[in-house]
Specification:
The chain contains three helices and two strands, in the order H-E-E-H-H. By secondary structure, it is mainly alpha-helical.
Length: 63
């Protein structure tokens, strides 16, 4: 979560053909809010996975 809160994010990201994020800052805030409210409830693990996928995408793009 620290990475997501401090990273320089592009405005838009296309993770895959079916995943187009129009506003990455809103996307990150929404996922972080869910994690903070419900952690460690495993039902919300997809929120954590989404942040990791976004991080991997942005780090690959920076290379």
């Amino acid at each position: 979560m620290h990475w997501a809160e401090t990273a320089q994010l592009p405005k838009e990201v296309v993770l895959s053909e079916s995943e187009h994020i129009n506003d990455t800052s809103l996307y990150v805030r929404a996922n972080i809010n869910d994690i903070k409210q419900h952690y460690p409830d495993a039902f919300y693990n997809p929120d954590i996975i989404r942040l990791y996928r976004l991080k991997e995408f942005i780090e690959r793009a920076a290379e």
